[in-house]
Design a protein that fits this description.
By secondary structure, this protein is an alpha+beta fold. Helix content is about 20%, strand content about 30%. The chain has two helices and 20 strands. Strands 7, 8, 11, 15 and 18 form a five-stranded antiparallel sheet that branches. β9 and β10 form a beta hairpin.
Length: about 260
């Protein structure tokens, strides 16, 4: 019975939906995390009568057709790239992006990564790096005798050396933006990499040409909404149960047919 296979695709789709939701909930406290959303498409249809087909010798046509679907499949799990809540941290190397853009990170395998996670540290050589030690691009080195670091909204990095009363500029942070940022591929460790779908990175200065500005001593939280995720989880569970009930119903119908004498 075809209903068995149709309902099984529904169960598989809702299982994938729950996996996506569970990953969102698991990353509720992940800095700069962007929630994902499962999207679905219906499968091919078996057409038993085409709408508009001739129904008599006089040329009358069927106003509607007869189509039986084959179920559902997961079409995509795009990221929702909305702004997360910005919260103070009182740590001078923490940065939050308010608006468009990603920090640029040099990954160990030579690829360029992009992130909204501004939890930065100093390497033993004084370079500005992320929590995994990956260097932020363009490279910025903070002298060992720097008493404090100041990062302006446009990404200018200044330090006060020893007893100096005027700051010294040591670098300029830049941001990257994409035509289709939802097309970025997740690389783990709060990093994305560009794809053919995302388009090439457009590098620019913060607070200029549509780029967001930077907030020092702040971090961007995850954009996961716990209430939305729980509501979506309940809806996915109920959809899974209904598909399971369809399988049970189809099985009972087949059992009744097999008992006919």
């Amino acid at each position: 019975m075809k209903a068995l296979y149709i309902a099984s695709t529904g169960m598989a789709a809702q299982e994938r939906n729950v996996e996506v939701i569970s990953n969102n909930i698991a990353n509720m406290r992940t800095t700069g995390y962007k929630r994902a959303r499962a999207e679905f498409q219906d499968l091919l249809y078996q057409v038993q009568r085409q709408a508009g087909s001739t129904t008599s010798e006089t040329g009358t046509m069927a106003p509607v057709g007869i189509e039986v679907g084959s179920g559902v499949r997961t079409a995509a799990t795009p990221r929702v790239m909305s702004q997360g809540t910005v919260a103070p941290t009182e740590k001078e190397l923490d940065l939050a992006i308010r608006g468009e853009g990603f920090f640029v990170v040099q990954m160990p395998d030579g690829r360029t990564g992009y992130t909204r996670d501004g939890s930065f540290e100093r390497s033993p050589e004084g370079q500005l790096v992320n929590v995994d030690g990956y260097e932020i691009q363009p490279g910025i080195t903070i002298p060992g005798n720097a008493n404090s670091v100041s990062i302006s909204p446009d990404g200018t990095v200044e330090v006060f050396l020893d007893n100096d009363t005027t700051p010294t500029t040591v670098g300029q942070l830049q941001l990257a933006r994409f035509v289709n940022k939802a097309g970025l591929s997740s690389a783990g460790n709060n990093l994305f990499v560009e794809t053919a779908s995302s388009g090439p990175a457009q590098i620019g200065t913060p607070n200029q040409d549509g780029m967001g500005d930077l907030l020092q001593e702040y971090l961007e939280a995850s954009n996961v909404n716990s209430v939305t995720e729980i509501a979506d989880l309940i809806a996915a569970q109920r959809a899974y149960e209904m598909n399971a009930r369809v399988i049970s119903g189809a099985d009972e119908m087949m059992q009744s047919a097999s008992q006919l004498r």
